[in-house]
From TrEMBL:
Residues 30-192 form the Glycosyltransferase subfamily 4-like N-terminal domain. Residues 206-369 form the Glycosyl transferase family domain. Keywords: Transferase. One of its GO terms (molecular function) is glycosyltransferase activity. Residues 402-414 have a biased composition (Basic and acidic residues). This is Glycosyl transferase. Residues 395-414 are annotated as: Disordered.
Length: 414
C-alpha cells in the first residue's frame, strides 16, 4: 500500500464509459459537496447525483448542468453522537430511501457515496442492486469527531466498499486506526482549477465595499462551527494592533446557531465591534480571499483536508493554519505558509503580527505556495487519478456485478 498522494494506479484500460450514481446527504454546499461538484463534472452525461436534502447544493449542480435528484423529502437523523438505539431507528427511517436508491442504482455501474449517511444508504443499496460501492471519505474517523457507535458503523460499512478514497493521509490514517481495511483505501487530495483563483484586479473594489481600506485584513472562510475555531481568531485579535481587522465568511450550515450566537457575544465582550465583520455564506470567496492580507484557518480539531487552505494559496495570499490533520500535509511552515498549534491564540497573533510587519516576506511565501498548490492540486490531474481508480473498480467488477450482466440476471436470463 502506498500512503502518499502518488497512487499505485492499475493498468486498467481507459476510458471506461461507466455510469455513476453519486450520493450525498447534504442539500448545502459544504467542502465535501464542493469537492464532489468538481469530481462529477466529467461524468455529467452519464451520472446522477442523488441528494438526501434540498438546498443550495442542488442549485449549484443544476447551474453546472449536472443531473440531480433530491431522493427524499424527510431530513435524516444519523447524528454524530447518536447511540446504537438511535442508529437502529434511523435505519428504519432510511428504508424507503434505500429501496429507492437500490432501484435507481440498477441503471448505473457504480454507487459513489460522498458522505456518511450516503455510505449507510449506499452500502445497503449496493448489496440489493449488486453494484460496487465507492466511498469518498471526507472525515477523520476518530472519537474527536464521532461517537463510537457511528465510528463502528462507518468503518464496518466502508469495509464493504470496493474502494475508499481518503481526502488526506490524515483521514486515511484515522480510517486504518479505526479498523479500516488497508487494501481498500487510496489517498486523493481535493482538486482545484488554479485559473479560477486569479482575481487580483478586484481587490480595491472589494476592500472599498467592505470599508477595509488601510486595514490589515485577516480572512476566515469556514462554516461557523465550534471545531472550526473562529473564537480563536477573535482572541488573537485582542493581541494585535487596532488596524488588524477580521472578516468571517461562512454561516452555521449544519445547525450550529448557538455557536454563532456565542461568537457575536464574544465580539461584544472583547469590544471588537469595529474590527470584525460576519459576512455570512458567500459564493464570491475568491474575490474576498484576494482582498485579504492573510487567511487564517483555526480548526481546534484535526481538519480532514481543509479546502480553504489550498484556496488561499491559489489566490496568492499568505495562510496560517492549525497544525493538525490534513492541514499538515498542505502547509510547510515557513515555506508555503505557517502552522500554529490548534487553539493557540497567542501563536496565531504572533504570525499575524509577523505578516503585518514583514509584508514582503509574507508575499514571497504566498507566491511560493501559489506555485506549489497550482501543481499539487491541479483539478484535471486529480480527476484523472479518480477516473483511474474508478476504472479499476469497474474492471474488477465486470462480469460479476456489471450493469449488463446483472440486468440479465434480474430478467432471469441466466
Ligand atoms: N465556502 C464558501 N462560502 C462561504 C464559506 C466557505 O463557498 O461562505 C467554501 C470554501 O471556499 C471551501 C468550502 O466552503 O471551498 C469549505 O471547505 P473546507 O474543506 O475548508 O471545510 P468544510 O466546511 O468542508 O469542513
Ligand atoms: C470535509 C472536511 C474538510 C475537507 C472537505 C473536502 O468537509 O471537513 O476538511 O476539506 O471535506 O474533502
Amino acid at each position: 500500500m502506498v500512503i502518499n498522494n502518488q497512487l499505485p494506479i492499475t493498468n486498467y484500460p481507459l476510458p471506461i464509459r461507466m455510469k455513476i450514481l453519486f450520493l450525498d446527504q447534504s442539500g448545502k454546499p459544504g467542502g465535501a459537496e464542493l469537492c464532489l461538484l468538481d469530481i462529477v463534472k466529467p461524468y455529467r452525461d452519464r451520472c446522477l447525483v442523488g441528494l438526501f436534502a434540498d438546498g443550495g447544493f442542488k442549485d449549484l449542480l443544476q447551474q453546472h448542468e449536472i443531473p440531480v435528484q433530491v431522493l427524499t423529502g424527510r431530513s435524516l437523523q444519523v447524528s454524530k453522537d447518536s447511540g446504537l438505539l438511535q442508529g437502529a431507528s434511523s435505519l428504519g427511517q432510511l428504508l424507503p430511501l434505500i429501496t429507492r436508491v437500490a432501484k435507481i442504482a440498477r441503471e448505473y455501474d457504480i454507487i459513489y457515496a460522498n458522505t456518511q449517511k450516503a455510505l449507510v444508504v449506499g452500502a445497503i443499496a449496493s448489496l440489493l442492486s449488486r453494484r460496487p460501492l465507492v466511498y469518498h471519505l471526507h472525515d477523520i474517523l476518530s472519537t474527536e469527531h464521532f461517537s463510537r457507535t457511528n465510528l463502528r458503523l462507518a468503518v464496518t460499512l466502508a469495509n464493504r466498499a470496493s474502494l475508499v478514497i481518503a481526502n488526506s493521509q490524515a483521514s486515511q490514517k484515522a480510517f486504518l486506526a479505526a479498523g479500516g481495511n488497508p487494501k481498500l483505501v487510496r489517498v486523493v487530495y481535493n482538486g482545484f482549477a488554479p485559473q479560477l483563483y486569479r482575481q487580483e484586479n478586484s481587490v480595491a473594489q472589494t476592500r472599498q465595499e467592505l470599508g477595509l481600506e488601510g486595514k490589515f485584513v485577516v480572512g476566515h472562510f469556514s462554516r461557523l462551527a465550534p471545531w472550526k475555531g473562529q473564537h480563536v481568531l477573535l482572541d488573537a485579535l485582542t493581541q494585535c494592533p487596532p488596524e488588524v481587522t477580521a472578516i468571517f465568511v461562512g454561516d452555521a450550515l449544519f445547525g450550529e446557531q448557538d455557536y454563532k450566537q456565542q461568537l457575536h457575544q464574544q465580539v461584544a465582550e472583547l469590544g471588537l465591534e469595529q474590527r470584525v465583520q460576519f459576512l455570512g455564506f458567500r459564493s464570491d470567496v475568491v474575490s474576498l480571499m484576494t482582498a485579504c492580507d492573510l487567511v487564517a484557518h483555526t480548526s481546534i480539531a484535526a481538519e480532514p483536508f481543509g479546502r480553504v487552505i489550498v484556496e488561499a494559496m491559489l489566490c496568492g495570499r499568505p495562510v496560517v493554519a492549525s497544525q493538525a490533520g490534513g492541514a499538515v500535509e498542505l502547509v510547510e511552515t515557513g515555506k508555503t505558509g505557517w502552522l500554529v498549534p490548534p487553539g493557540d491564540a497567542q501563536k496565531l497573533a504572533e504570525i499575524i503580527n509577523t505578516c503585518r510587519q514583514q509584508s514582503e516576506m509574507a508575499s514571497a511565501i504566498a507566491h511560493q505556495a501559489q506555485i506549489s498548490a497550482s501543481q499539487r492540486f491541479e483539478l484535471n490531474e486529480i480527476n484523472r487519478q479518480i477516473e483511474r481508480l474508478l476504472a479499476g473498480v469497474g474492471s474488477r467488477e465486470s462480469g460479476v456485478g456489471s450493469r449488463e450482466e446483472s440486468d440479465k440476471e434480474d430478467k432471469g436470463e441466466f
